[in-house]
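User: Design a sequence. Structure:
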């Protein structure tokens, strides 16, 4: 659900931030791919495989994180939005996914889980790298926009 929520948010950014539409659309599509991979875990559970340490994660906290992302999507679709705000929000989301250590904490007796977990950790790190680049680009664009503003003179 968190991956799907992030995809919805990034889709909203793609629709509203035309200067970086392709960047956000690609991230949105990748988040949906991540959700699909995670949904594949249900098949593993149905085969009787075991996931360990899942209880370390508080469902209410995860649901609260999802609500934060959904609220950010609402603001992105209906409120004031800047490229800077979008990048900062996305960085916070991706860092939270990395820092909560889900894939390092949860283990399984299903070998497929290790493959998927490793892939998703790598994808999240790649998202962070690309978002850092986009942050630099949005700062540069903001600086260019500021160059057009006349400098007030002392009188």
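Assistant: Done.
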């Amino acid at each position: 659900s968190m991956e799907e929520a992030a995809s919805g948010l990034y889709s909203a950014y793609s629709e509203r931030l035309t200067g970086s539409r392709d960047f956000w659309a690609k991230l949105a599509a990748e988040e949906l791919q991540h959700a699909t991979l995670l949904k594949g875990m249900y098949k593993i559970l149905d085969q009787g495989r075991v996931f360990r340490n899942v209880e370390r994660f508080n469902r209410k906290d995860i649901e609260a994180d999802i609500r934060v992302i959904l609220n950010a999507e609402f603001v992105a679709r209906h409120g004031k939005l800047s490229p800077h705000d979008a990048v900062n929000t996305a960085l916070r989301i991706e860092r939270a996914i990395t820092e909560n250590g889900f894939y390092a904490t949860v283990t399984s007796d299903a070998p497929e889980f290790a493959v998927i977990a490793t892939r998703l950790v790598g994808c999240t790190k790649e998202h962070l790298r690309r978002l850092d680049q986009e942050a630099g680009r949005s700062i540069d664009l903001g600086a260019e926009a500021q160059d057009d503003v006349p400098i007030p003179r002392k009188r």
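Strands lie at 51-52, 107-108. The chain is about 75% helix and 5% strand.
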